[in-house]
Amino acid sequence: MIPNRPRYAARLNAFKTKGGTVADMIRGAGQVGGLTAADLNFPDHFEHHSPAQLKALLADHGMVLNGLAMRYYTDPGFRLGAFTHPDVTVRRAAIDQTKVGIDACAAMGGQIMTLWMGQDGFDYSFQVDYDRVWDLTLEAIAEVADHHPGVDIALEYKPNEPRAFALMPDMGTTLLALREVNRRNTGVTLDFAHVLYAGEMPAQAAQLAARHSRILGVHLNDGYGKRDDGLMAGSVHPVQTIELFVELDRAKYDGVIYFDTFPDHSGLNPGDEARENIRLTDRLRDIATRLAKDPALAEAQARQDAAASNRIVTQAMFG
Q1: Most buried in the list 200, 225, 252, 306, measured by CB within 10 Å?
Q2: How far is C-alpha 260 from the geometric centre of its chain's CA atoms?
Q3: How far is it, in rounded angstroms, from Cα 9 to Cα 317?
């Protein structure tokens, strides 16, 4: 068995049914077996339940809150931007709403507020003043980070969607932003499909995040690198997933593995899909643990001998 098995969480909206409530989603996730943590979206998952009620619902189904994720895109008022909106009153509303979310996270015992700033970007040349929107973003991140230093603020990058260009589309730009923000309670959430979409190697992205900042969250899924496919973990890139786990172990990442997958896109049963995510992830992590201790692999990497390293890795995978 894998030592120090991490907590697993899954995208709650995958368990959404017609006419169902957040309580129904939590119940569905709790029936999977093996999901011991949860991330909730703010503010949409809090529309009909208080933080105390949601905390109790999670506990009833054997789960604890990992953190919250801000969902500005559910509000059409933020379509032109949240932290970068040209109207100062809209920017202030986004920042203040984030602070309310951070307070809810802390009240529920959560550790992380994840910011995916998909609506903060641009679609045309000459649409924005790049210096201004960059400054506005960093000022807002610093302000929300200072609001509750005990809650970590994680930036989740993605190249685009819904805007044609995101302000933080890749690991390098995200790390530049975090360096300028310069707050101890900030870091990165790695989304496997987003990393592929950005044309990056997941393990190298993790290494850079650990070297220059902190890895605060890992969203595990898979895809073909052309969009945010949200496929089952390890279903397309098992070798890259194994390499990511090796790097996460080196970085001593002990946080939650969150399955950000979309069974609803393919009409899959969300419970079956979540169990398959857990099963294959356990197997790939076990292979990663063994490979990390393999001196032959270390020697092959030192020589940059791809043929030798591929032979060792595929032997561990397929026998």
Answers
A1: 200
A2: 7
A3: 25
pLDDT tens readout for residues 1-25: 344 466 999 999 999 988 899 999 9
What's the token pair of residue 82? 């949240």
DSSP code, position 168: S
Residues 140-143: contacts with CB within 8 Å, 24+ apart? 140/83, 140/91, 140/94, 140/95, 140/98, 141/83, 141/115, 141/177, 141/181, 141/183, 141/186, 142/181, 142/182, 142/183, 143/95
pTM of structure: 0.96
Contact in structure between 231 and 223 (CB atoms under 8 Å): yes
Q: Express each pLDDT in 70-113 by its tens digit.
A: 999 878 899 999 999 999 999 999 999 999 999 999 999 999 99
- Residue range 269-303, pLDDT digits in tens: 999 999 999 999 999 999 999 999 999 999 999 99
Tokens of 92: 């202030």
Q: What is the DSSP string of 266-311?
A: TT--HHHHHHHHHHHHHHHHHHHHHHHT-HHHHHHHHHT-HHHHHH
Domains, the chain, with CATH or none: 8-288 (3.20.20.150)
Query: 3-state DSSP call for residue 84?
Result: coil
User: Percentage of the chain surpassing pLDDT 70?
Assistant: 98
Does the CA dihedral 225-186-243-286 come out positive or negative?
A: negative
Cα(50)–Cα(43) distance, integer angstroms:
11
